[in-house]
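The following block was generated as part of the benchmark described in Methods. Ligand: pyridoxal-5'-phosphate.
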Amino acid sequence: MVLSKTASESDVSVHSTFASRYVRTSLPRFKMGENSIPKEAAYQIINDELMLDGNPRLNLASFVTTWMEPECDKLIMASINKNYVDMDEYPVTTELQASHLHPHPTQYIYNRCVNIIAHLFNAPLEDSEAAVGVGTVGSSEAIMLAGLAFKRKWQNKRRAEGKPFDKPNIVTGANVQVCWEKFARYFEVELKEVKLREGYYVMDPTKAVEMVDENTICVAAILGSTLNGEFEDVKLLNDLLIEKNKETGWDTPIHVDAASGGFIAPFIYPELEWDFRLPLVKSINVSGHKYGLVYAGIGWVIWRTKEDLPEELIFHINYLGADQPTFTLNFSKGSSQVIAQYYQLIRLGHEGYQNIMENCRENAIVLREGLEKTGRFNIVSKDNGVPLVAFSLKDNSCHTEFEVSDMLRRFGWIVPAYTMPPDAQHVTVLRVVIREDFSRTLAERLVIDIEKVLHELDTLPSRISAKISLTREEKKEDNSTVVVKKSDLEMQREITTAWKKLVMAKKTNGVC
Ligand SMILES: *Cc1c(COP(=O)(O)O)cnc(C)c1O
């Protein structure tokens, strides 16, 4: 006891942190250490390890915000120790909101965000009527909640009609984000996917409406497909579904997954009808941490009216003081993200969001044109969707998109490559998401680096990916084997390994 105390004292007082024994020896990885370590050493160890993470601002794979103004960073740090549920009332219904006499300031901020976003989406609200919506961790939680509301509404209706209600389904495009598949599996709803085809990478509204049946709890349209940024035609879907509902007597509603597009369309495509202006759109989700311009950890879901959110899903708790209605999957969470969202909404206003979105669109066009000039790529994104550029090689018989992606990493760029969902799985694309902090200089720099990569690939004799099999054998439970397709990640890993070998072989030949 005395000995170890002396040792740690000497570490702290005599050596710099780097010279202390804590930084020189490694800690047990998967077990808690016997003794405490000095705070400086803990900081240093973790900080050093994190240095090896990629630079988030060069991660062009993600829609999630990586830069905010320093004033907002300050507000975030100041509220980092506040638990959101301790002070919050969820504005699920107007009466409950009015009955709360001493709301905390954070609650006001939260309510304002919900109302501002509902107005942005053209919710049909009377003058002083409060919007119906909740803040979530992201669009995934928002989609779980919206899906649950549809499921419950449909079940209640079927039960009242004396019809079976055990086989609910949702109709979507095969291009849906993975959170819809999660919702389907966790909450036992079948996902009926409209297949894609080469050259058409979003849900075809006509085919979607054909797939709707009496068990369909909603059709989910995407404003800004994750794969190529394209906006789905929600207006056409709404019109076709109105017809079908008339013929069949059903009242199948629409949910719009506006995770990325919800903060784009209102500012640069105000004429586009995709939101509550369309009568069948009953709920919309948006990720505050994507083009809402807040760091990871916030999303929103807004319902058209109170009637679209079944009352029995709302929990009333009172053990933290006054009555609080809540409808979220988690209880405690930080307040910082809500405060940061409010900062962006008031700081930027309509003008600010419009400027940023226009700028992103222009930078996407600069990049798109730069890529077209190389003459080597087909562009599979549209200029009037989410600001991103998705592209594939015109000729991938010698080298694939996975190899381009891999080589770009050497320049520090993270540009993902992936195969499209069925029935366009033979198409591979590279995707660059343009965020606020991706400047024109960076766009131009990226084109130059892509050209370098192409040039280098052209001089390479061998096609790495040709040596890698697209499939592998997998053992089944009965010990027989089946041939399965390798995942994109597996392909990427194998290509990286093959490149490393090649680069090392080159070095030994003295070639640079
Ligand atoms: C990002 C995304 C999601 C998931 O959103 P999170 O905020 O990351 O949970 C869902 N749908 C679409 C279309 C998305 O782009």
